Amino acid sequence: MAANNTGIEQDRYKGMLETLQTQDAEIDQVVISSKFVVTYLLQQDPPNPGWRKANIEGPVYLVRRRSAPRYQLLVKNQFSNNDLVDDLHPDWEL
Q: Strand order of the sheet with strand 71-75?
């Protein structure tokens, strides 16, 4: 049974990669993913600084690309075509 699950996972990964490559042909690997995230933006300007929901929700992918930028974070927005794509930077604090 485990061998069958491995085949299913490989098929799922291949489908995920092919779908992402339709948006960016430079993607060559999905490093890790999660089925669902909600994004927030930090508003630092007065009068009401704080975290605000960004209306971007859906699966998130950490992808490796063939060209620069080598790694990107991608949230496929389930509400619109307004996806979040951000290049990874070593100064990020997560």
A: 27-43, 50-65, 71-75, 84-87
How would DSSP label each residue in 6-17? HHHHHHHHHHHH
pLDDT digits (tens, 9 = 90+) for 8-64: 889 999 999 999 999 999 999 999 999 999 999 999 988 889 999 999 999 999 999
pTM above 0.85, yes or no: no
Residue 30: DSSP 8-state? E
Scanning the chain, the segments in alpha helix (DSSP H) are: 2-23
**Which residues, at least 6 apart from 71, have a Cβ–Cβ distance to it below 8 Å?**
31, 62, 63, 64, 65, 87, 88
Alpha-carbon span 17 to 25, nearest angstrom: 10
DSSP state at residue 67: S
Task: State the Cα–Cα distance between residues 61 and 3, nearest whole angstrom.
Answer: 25
Residue recorded with tokens 């998130």? 60
